[in-house]
Specification:
By secondary structure, this protein is mostly beta strands. The protein has one helix and eight strands; from the N terminus they run H-E-E-E-E-E-E-E-E. The strands form two sheets. A five-stranded antiparallel beta sheet has the order 6-5-4-7-8, with no helix packed on it. Strands 2-1-3 form a three-stranded antiparallel beta sheet, with no helix packed on it. It is globular and about 50 Å long. Bound molecules: zinc ion.
Length: 167
């Protein structure tokens, strides 16, 4: 069972990022959201990167997401430590908001790109680290929302011996 690295380096809190690292105190993940265009922005910035409006404020999100990419760390930075998953998680609300985090509560062999995940917080000193664990697949066709672009089937594996040969 992968549960993340044995020792964590904690973020340095400042006025801009404190809300993010303390957000898990009430069990909710938050990102800055633009009051003008409604998009989320991360890491914290003073102006919206999409429409340049000021006044972004933290807003809670569902905590659900998709494993966009992953790698398994086997290097024993601490002698005797177990392998763990470094994950890139795309949040459900906005595909270009991605967190570099750890996948926890999951067998290494079960970690798959595209798997649904949900946030869990690890409280260490004065921060709540947002980690992710496997989640049940979301309900299909909830309220008729359109499918997110780019979330369809992944591309065919490269280097297939049968097809895709260059001429
Ligand atoms: Zn905006």
């Amino acid at each position: 069972m992968a549960d993340g690295p044995p020792i964590r380096l904690l973020p340095r809190l400042d006025a801009e990022n404190r809300f993010f690292w303390e957000s898990g105190a009430d069990g909710q993940l938050r990102f800055l959201r633009c009051p003008s265009c409604g998009r989320y922005a991360h890491p914290p910035v003073p102006r919206c990167p999409y429409c340049l409006a000021p006044g972004l404020a933290p807003e809670p999100v569902s905590g659900r997401g998709t494993l966009h990419s992953l790698t398994v760390n086997h290097q024993q930075w601490i002698p005797g430590s177990e392998p763990y998953v470094v994950a890139l998680v795309e949040i459900a609300e906005q595909a270009d908001i991605r967190l570099t985090t750890n996948l926890v509560g999951c067998e290494l062999s079960e970690a798959r790109v595209g798997m649904p995940v949900k946030v869990v917080f690890e409280h260490v000193e004065d921060v709540w680290l947002p980690l992710f664990e496997p989640a049940p697949a979301p309900e299909p066709a909830s309220e008729g929302l359109p499918a997110a672009p780019g979330s369809a089937e992944s591309a065919e594996p490269a280097g297939s011996p049968e097809e895709g040969r260059e001429r």
